[in-house]
Amino acid sequence: MSTSRPDQQRQQDQLQDRRRRPARDDVRRALLDAAARVFARQGIDGASLDDVAADAGFTKGAVYSNFGSKEGLVAALAEDRTSAYLDLGLEAVDDLDDTLAVRAQVLGDRLTAAGDEQRDWHLLFFELWQRAVRSDDPDGAFRDRRAALHAAVTAAMEEQSTKAGAALPMPASELATLLMALSNGLAMERMIAPEDVPDDLMGRVLALVVGHGPAAGPTDAQ
């Protein structure tokens, strides 16, 4: 039995609609980028899912189908930006064949640049940090992400030390804490007073830390 012309047209229209419809990964990416912009402008609590969807060019249903809820969107965004930020820094030193101090300088410089590129992420990070400290993070999600990031940075410090053939001046876990504190703190200062935070400041500090041992204490100097 042959297909009628109206049926053929309907099938063609459906095929064209599927071709025009963005892939699910593209929709998810657009929503995450929109959420970063909207949350940075309005704050997490001040922004609605309608705001995020409109910024991305979709309906609120797209947010629910991809993330389930506003908290799901926030959690996905934090995970996405945390991973991307760390990857940018590690990619800069991954194939570098140089001293540990030079690796640290390059890493610090790249993280500073990444902070400028992802200003929205730092605004979101500071808000998530406040919510966690004020006990608005009942399931510990933000603390869990921080712990996972700390473990990843610690492992990266150990790997870079091995590649450079040089010992770290302090335990890798402590160096990871220092790196995270420097990155977050200098990003905050750079937002409010960029003239006080040169592009190479974090890199120079990290190079000094790993290039020289800790200063001698009173007992050591005797």
What features would you highlight for this structure?
single chain, 222 residues, 0% strand, disordered C terminus, 11 helices, mainly alpha
Give the SSE map:
Elements: H1 5-20, H2 24-42, H3 49-56, H4 60-67, H5 70-93, H6 100-117, H7 119-133, H8 141-164, H9 172-192, H10 201-211, H11 218-221
Helix pairs in contact: 2-3, 2-5, 2-7, 3-4, 4-5, 5-6, 5-8, 6-7, 6-10, 8-9
What distance lies between the first and last C-alpha atoms, to the nearest angstrom?
100 Å
Structural class by helix and strand composition: mainly alpha
What's the total helix number?
11
Taken in chain order, the helices and strands follow as: HHHHHHHHHHH
Largest beta-sheet details: none
Radius of gyration: 23 Å
Which term fits the overall shape?
elongated
Q: Mean pLDDT across all residues, rounded?
A: 83
Strand content: under 5%
In total, the number of strands is 0
Low-confidence stretches: 14-19, 213-222
Task: Write structural notes for this entry.
The protein has 222 residues and is mostly helical. It has helices at residues 5-20, 24-42, 49-56, 60-67, 70-93, 100-117, 119-133, 141-164, 172-192, 201-211, 218-221. The longest helix has 24 residues, at 70-93. It is elongated and about 75 Å long. 24% of the residues are buried. Residues 14-19 and 213-222 have low confidence and may be disordered.
